[in-house]
Amino acid sequence: MQITIRCEGADAAGELAASLHQWLLDEPDARRHAEVQLVGAAPVEGELGFVLDLVQLIVGSGFSAGSLGYTVAQWKKMNAPQLAMSFERNGRTVTVSGTDAEEIARVIRQLDEE
In the sheet that 92-96 helps form, which strands lie side by side, from edge to edge? Predict the structure, then answer.
């Protein structure tokens, strides 16, 4: 399963994405069961190039939505509790703004079901 995570509406979206990327790489379960990459969205008109502002995960069967939800929630609590984050899979996007691990895990599970 591939999931793309975007930090929404932040001037420092690239820095926040880099921080989340490193947080996930430091998490043993994520490192073991997911391929974590920092990637860039296509530049909008007027921009010169890509900004690395997305975290992309290719998740194996050993890394549950609950584990990812907990890991992301912990990062949000420590780094950007008011930040809205979008989770995208297969063209479907859901945005969460809280730091509740269960809510984030539920969103990720919903993306997996459809």
Answer: 34-41, 51-59, 2-8, 84-89, 92-96
**H-state helical runs in 36-100:** 65-79
Amino acid at 55: V
Residue tagged 């809280």 (tokens): 98
Domain range spanning residue 77?
2-113
CATH of the domain at 75: 3.30.70
Q: What average pLDDT does range 49-53 have in this prediction?
A: 64
Q: Is the pLDDT of residue 48 over 70?
A: no
The DSSP H or E segment spanning 13 is helix 13-26
Residue 6 CA to residue 84 CA, distance in Å, equals 9
- Number of folded domains that form the chain: 1
Beta bridge partners of 86: 6, 95
